[in-house]
Write a sequence for this structure.
């Protein structure tokens, strides 16, 4: 049984709301030019044991003196004592994290948000569509599906990135492809010498797969344009709106529906999302500046 | 003086000459009294010491983009309406240091913890203010048991619990007020401990809660006569008929859900300066940002929460740039939020009709006019059935 407590565990914070708790960086791994995966562990052993999270949820990671950023948890949700965060270096907080190594202390609040619809996919085919860093919040989903493989139909992962050098989790992609427990397809916008895989945007990969429109659930996470293109492509293939899920990115400051920054129409992306069923946002999804 | 029994919903008379007692009693009970007080030529909501601090005999004039107060001859205590201050200023202060700490080995060591919640007595809140407090209660989940600790607002909750709300019914609505359209005023209906209606020589005191009852029992109250009550009622009915503004709220959500791409937003955007004044004066705006700062050595760190405005660039910055890059997008977000998406989020309108955003907009943008213009140009839309129902 997938209960509410599994999908939405209680978040942790310091002595007050908006106070992060310390976590130690154990290990860092370079994924590509500007993306790293950080293995971290809560300093407090009691909290570490209490802490639970679900695929698709995120933490507010904190660098003391700099600030916080919303970062998805990219590891295995059934191993919650060690967390991984895969971070693309873009701005003030992520740059500060880039300068940290094993032994450094960062802060954390979370887990926040509603993740992927674990409770609604039993027995179904699952198609995961990721663009660039969007693979980070989908990796826990891959782990989950692999661990409970017998509960699901076909599992397909479609991953698109700019170039072969921009891939994430290269070893795992390789392993997932080899093991053949899931169908794993990677495409790049721009090939470099030695690339033998497909070239083009991730939605082009749809031509290479056969979907069972009546029994598939789609989970998309990528940049805005990819989210739109992917969602619309699947709808065109007669996947019903209520089987298409998209994870959205917005500016976030609190993570729990108080600061207002992440609003998207009536939705607070931090607490009502970041994962939305297409039919929840259908009327605003194609509009600008919402 | 005959002693009268004070109970819930009791209405009694407090003579003006005894009004000072009210403030005194509140002070004796350890309250800081927050009331109307003229600061920089504006009736503001500030700590007051005595009756003398009230703008007695003053009246305000408000129009879009205009505000003034002047002394008139009368001895009225509350012949003005709301100024730019609003009650949220005290429950969620404009800028508040949440904590300071330093990192020691693997711990965050707190040097200064969260701020102490004050014990406040609000004197002279208007019906729209009371409604705005109820709206903020829903925003922060005040009184909701199931809230996760990490998502609760202790400061708000404590301040709210400790405060006492003494309202004044409006007998002279302002020129930018439209509370009767929003069904929040001019008479205080709920969420007050005591409500006052000003007559010539006295106030009608209405008890609204247990806390209010305890306070009222300490006051030198007298039985209210039939004619006093009738007069007060008449004044309030009259006030409701003389609102400076009106807003047609029927189908307003439908209207705003179906006009997202209307060209009218471009016209508002041509005027709007994106200054954010409307968001700063609005009693229901709740957006905020927590930022870090450090001392000069970089070791002592403070986290500070400040009011934020959806009219700023940084409000919506994400990897692809600001989500709302144009003034059109930002104004539309603000207005749709107040009147439309608020319903989905919190089950009520986000506008209480206080008119502050109209008065304090430097270019005189008027939310009631904007709704009306949209409505007029989309009449056919509203009549058709082929519409987005009341959803996002
Ligand atoms: C639910 C969720 C999950 C996420 N998961 C991940 C994840 O797993 N991995 C990951 O790498 N990212 C993730 N993100 C994205 C991440 O939160 C953002 O990239 C975040 O902004 C990084 O914080 P920062 O302080 O480093 O960047 P910021 O300093 O906030 O900068 C962010 C972007 O905005 C621009 N910017 C900001 N302010 C200004 C300004 N005033 N003028 C001009 N440009 C400006 C910056 O140049 C940059 O491109 C997630 C976001 C969300 C909402
Ligand atoms: S939107 Fe304007 S009129 Fe409505 S509550 Fe806010 S400030 Fe008052
Ligand atoms: S509507 Fe008026 S007050 Fe609000 S941001 Fe625009 S110019 Fe400023
Ligand atoms: S991040 Fe603060 S409301 Fe969503």
């Amino acid at each position: 049984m997938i209960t509410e407590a599994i999908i939405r565990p209680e978040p942790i914070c310091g002595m007050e709301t908006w106070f992060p708790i310390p976590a130690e960086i154990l290990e860092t791994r370079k994924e590509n030019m500007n993306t790293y995966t950080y293995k971290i562990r809560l300093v407090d052993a009691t909290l570490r044991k209490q802490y639970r999270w679900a695929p698709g949820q995120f933490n507010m990671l904190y660098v003391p003196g700099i600030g916080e950023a919303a970062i998805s948890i990219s590891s295995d949700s059934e191993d919650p004592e060690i967390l991984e965060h895969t971070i693309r270096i873009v701005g003030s907080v992520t740059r500060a994290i880039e300068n940290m190594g094993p032994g450094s202390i960062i802060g954390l609040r979370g887990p926040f948000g509603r993740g992927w619809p674990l409770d609604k996919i039993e027995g179904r085919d699952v198609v995961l569509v990721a663009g660039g860093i969007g693979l980070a919040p989908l990796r826990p989903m891959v782990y989950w599906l692999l661990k409970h493989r017998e509960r699901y139909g076909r599992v397909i992962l479609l991953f698109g990135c700019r170039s072969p050098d921009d891939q994430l989790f290269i070893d795992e992609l390789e392993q997932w492809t080899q093991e053949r427990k899931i169908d794993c397809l990677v495409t790049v916008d721009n090939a470099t010498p030695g690339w033998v895989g497909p070239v083009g945007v991730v939605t082009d990969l749809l031509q290479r797969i056969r979907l069972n429109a009546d029994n598939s659930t789609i989970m998309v996470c990528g940049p805005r344009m990819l989210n739109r293109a992917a969602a619309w492509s699947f709808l065109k293939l007669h996947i019903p709106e209520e089987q298409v899920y998209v994870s959205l990115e917005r500016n976030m400051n609190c993570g729990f529906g108080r600061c207002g920054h992440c609003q998207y129409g009536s939705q607070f992306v931090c607490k009502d999302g970041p994962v939305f069923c297409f039919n929840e946002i259908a009327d605003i999804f194609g509009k600008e500046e919402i | 003086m005959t002693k009268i029994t004070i109970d819930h919903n009791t209405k009694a008379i407090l003579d003006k000459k005894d009004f000072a007692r009210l403030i005194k009693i509140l002070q004796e009970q350890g309250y800081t009294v927050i009331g109307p007080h003229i600061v920089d030529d504006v009736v503001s909501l500030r700590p007051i010491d005595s009756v003398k601090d009230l703008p007695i005999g003053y009246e305000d004039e408000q129009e879009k983009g205009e505000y003034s107060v002047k002394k008139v001859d009368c001895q009225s205590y509350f012949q003005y309406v709301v100024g730019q201050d609003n009650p949220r200023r005290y429950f969620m202060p404009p800028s508040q240091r949440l904590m300071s700490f330093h990192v020691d080995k693997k711990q965050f060591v707190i040097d200064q913890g969260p701020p102490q919640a004050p014990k406040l007595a609000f004197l002279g809140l208007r019906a729209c203010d009371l409604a705005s407090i109820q709206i903020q209660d829903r925003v922060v989940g005040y009184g909701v048991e199931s809230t996760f600790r990490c998502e609760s607002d202790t400061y708000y909750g404590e301040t709210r619990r400790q405060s006492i709300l003494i309202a004044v019914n409006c007998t002279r609505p302002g020129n930018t007020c439209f509370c009767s359209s929003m069904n929040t005023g001019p008479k205080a209906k709920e969420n007050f401990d005591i409500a006052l209606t000003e007559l010539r020589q006295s106030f009608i005191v209405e008890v609204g809660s247990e806390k209010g009852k305890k306070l009222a029992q300490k006051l030198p109250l007298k039985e209210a006569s039939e004619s006093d009550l009738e007069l007060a009622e008449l004044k309030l009915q009259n006030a409701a008929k003389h609102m400076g503004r009106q807003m047609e709220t029927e189908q307003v959500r439908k209207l705003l859900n179906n006009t997202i791409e209307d060209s009218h937003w471009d016209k508002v955007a041509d005027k709007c300066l994106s200054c954010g004044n409307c968001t700063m004066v609005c009693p229901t705006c709740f957006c905020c940002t927590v930022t870090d700062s450090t001392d000069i050595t970089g070791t002592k760190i403070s986290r500070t929460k400040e009011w934020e405005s959806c009219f700023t660039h940084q409000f919506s910055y994400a990897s692809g740039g600001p989500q709302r890059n144009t003034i059109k997008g930002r104004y539309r977000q603000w207005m749709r939020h107040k009147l439309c998406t608020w319903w989905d989020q919190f089950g009520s309108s986000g506008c209480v009709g206080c008119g502050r955003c109209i008065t304090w907009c430097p270019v005189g943008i008027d939310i009631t006019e904007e709704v009306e213009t949209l409505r007029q140009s989309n009449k056919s839309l509203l009549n058709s059935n082929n519409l987005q129902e009341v959803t996002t």
User: Anything to note?
Assistant: The radius of gyration of chain A is 18 Å. Residues A 58, 69-72, 86-88, 90-94, 133, 136-137, 249-250, 252, 274; B 314, 317, 319 surround flavin-adenine dinucleotide (ligand 1) (CB under 6 Å). Helices of chain A lie at 4-7, 45-50, 92-98, 139-147, 170-179, 224-236, 269-272, 278-285. The domain at 4-112 of chain A is CATH 2.40.30.10 (Elongation Factor Tu (Ef-tu); domain 3).
